[in-house]
Design brief:
With 398 residues, the chain is mainly alpha-helical. Helix content is 75%, strand content 3%. The relative contact order is 0.17.
Length: 398
């Protein structure tokens, strides 16, 4: 076997390993189980275009939050305030739209989110307060601001522009979908020809094949809400930025070893602060879209959403310690959570069991990622043998 063939074979094996593609396997298995169960019970097809579109629409906003939560986690921090920030931004948008118009309302909401993110970044990176404490505090404080503004009441805007935007649908023409699919597949092939690995181009292959199959066999799936298209656009742009740009490589370096990154000339504080600001701004966008769906907000809007977002990122294999994570897998993690919820509803299973199952899935996923990590396996074996864990230098070389 030639060196190139051996390299390709090894790349394929790494790409299909449980740690690399485990969340995809779990998602496929979950959908298969729900499809078979629905069929056995004589219910409508679980894989119908209508049901799949509903899952995408229900998960789109949380998936958008999970994308940029993953960015923050990769940088070595995390943010518990995203749901409260989204709620505040939605409140600001609905409070200002009638008096100043939709453009000013949206801009005010986005600026509000960016300021909350900047506050988090400054307190964590410049003042040196622990990210958990800071974002837990802003979660509580921002939620309190929402309650103070609304005075315990829900509000509704007379201007329905946000509602028109948030509930709008767009159907991608089949020809456009086929062209995009061919371009994605061609781009993946070109990158491999230029020395790229299968693992590094897996997202392009998967996206191209999925889009081509949808265009040929499920054209109805090309008709989605604006929220879904925004989610897909953001995940593609963010994934490409993290994978193929200096910014992305620096961000992984900052999260993986901040001291080494600093010695290499990378401005660690700037990268981490920008991650917070982006997260806050995107949370504000989600808040505007959420408020627009109902043209109304109340003091409890999106309460607890931050836990769902973090759970989605963890399901996608993102490390809570920084330097590791993929936004596409975080989106798949979000789909798993909402597919579970949708499956319970379709199969008429009591809601009392949903949290139990979702929590079990989350713990199982975290355990799987830990067990399949080479470094964690060595630590576990050392602990079981009551031996000293491998030295940091050995971990770096491995």
């Amino acid at each position: 076997m030639s060196t190139t063939s051996a390299h390709d074979h090894g790349s394929w094996r790494r790409s299909l390993a449980p740690r690399a593609a485990g969340v995809v396997y779990a998602f496929v298995a979950l959908v298969a189980i729900l499809t078979i169960t629905s069929s056995v019970q004589g219910r409508p097809s679980y894989l119908s275009s209508v049901n799949l579109s509903n899952i995408l629409d229900q998960s789109a906003l949380i998936a958008i939050l999970a994308i940029f939560m993953t960015v923050v986690l990769i940088s070595g921090n995390f943010d518990l305030s995203v749901a409260s920030t989204a709620a505040l931004a939605g409140t600001v948008a609905l409070k200002t739209i009638d008096g100043y118009g939709p453009v000013v309302a949206i801009l005010a909401a986005l600026v509000t989110g960016a300021l909350v993110g900047l506050l988090n970044g400054v307190l964590v990176q410049k003042v040196g307060v622990n990210a958990f404490i800071v974002t837990l505090g802003t979660l509580t404080a921002v939620r309190g601001v929402v309650q103070a503004i609304l005075d315990g009441q829900s509000i509704t805007a007379a201007d329905s522009t946000l509602m028109d935007v948030a509930t709008a649908r767009w159907a991608m023409p089949i020809v456009v979908a086929v062209i995009l699919a061919v371009l994605l597949l061609a781009g993946a092939g070109l990158l491999i020809k230029r020395g790229g690995s299968v693992r590094s181009t897996a997202g392009l292959w998967a996206s191209g094949l999925a889009l081509l199959l949808l265009a040929l066999f499920r054209p109805l799936m090309l008709d989605q809400t604006i929220s879904v298209w925004i989610m897909l656009l953001l995940v593609v742009l963010t994934a490409l930025t993290l994978r193929y740009t200096v910014i992305g490589r620096n961000l992984y370096a900052v999260g993986g070893n901040p001291e080494a990154a600093r010695l290499s000339g990378i401005d660690v504080d700037r990268y981490r602060m920008v991650a917070f600001v982006l997260n806050g701004t995107v949370a504000a966008l989600v808040g505007v879209l959420y408020a627009g769906r109902f043209n109304s907000v109340d003091p409890t809007v999106l309460t607890g959403g931050e836990l769902t977002v973090i759970a989605a990122a963890v399901l996608g294999g993102t490390s809570l310690f920084g330097g590791s994570g993929f936004v596409t897998k975080s989106v798949v993690g979000t789909l798993i959570l909402f597919t579970l919820s949708n499956g319970f509803n379709v199969l008429n299973i009591g809601s009392n069991y949903q949290n139990v199952v979702q929590g079990t899935v989350l713990v199982a996923a975290a355990s799987l990622y830990t067990a399949t990590s080479g470094r964690e396996r060595r630590k576990l074996r050392a602990a079981l043998k009551k031996e000293k864990p491998p030295a940091p230098a050995e971990l770096v070389r491995s």
